[in-house]
Design brief:
glycosyltransferase, globular, 6-stranded mixed beta sheet, glycosyltransferase activity, 7 helices, single chain, alpha/beta
Length: 213
Amino acid sequence: MIFNKETAEKTAELLLQINAIKLNPKNPFTWASGWKSPIYCDNRLILSFPAIRNYVRDEFAKNIEKKFGKPDVIAGVATGAIGIGILVAESMGLPFVYVRPEPKKHGRQNQVEGFLQKGQNVVVVEDLISTGNSSLLAVEALKEAGANIKGMAAIFTYGFDVAEQNFKNANVELYTLSNYKNLLNLAVAKTYITEEEQQTLSEWNVNPSTWNV
């Protein structure tokens, strides 16, 4: 679910402007999962554009407090959401921790890095939601460390049905700055893509695992 439509449209436009989101229906990308995709999203680019990263930071900070209340801690999911998560925590005057994909193999073997007390309220910041599996693994690691998860806030979601179901099953509330539907509408309106290409991109979104196979 998006925080609000105005933010969703503005965020989509900014991501397209800096090529954080690339749309190429005629020459699809191949994801790490092996899926063929007409879209590729790299939100790490946001950090290289001060005005845009400040916009994303401010929208996160404002909307997180509005939807979840002010938490005790902001947690970023490594590695893509560490940078933006720190900015959000700084803006809100809150402590920050981050969650590794798996525990370290040496030293203290931490998966959650930073100071986190049992029972603290945590909002998780993520850069991108596809199936939601890796994001929800981070949530589980935080819960095991004693955190009370208030919800998750992400920059962008592809809006897959499987992700919606995964978050529902995990009982985790997810809000995003923008999503796939708003991106496509904006991309057509601003002539980044044609209406025919929009149709292709919409078809992919319905069944991405078998598209163009």
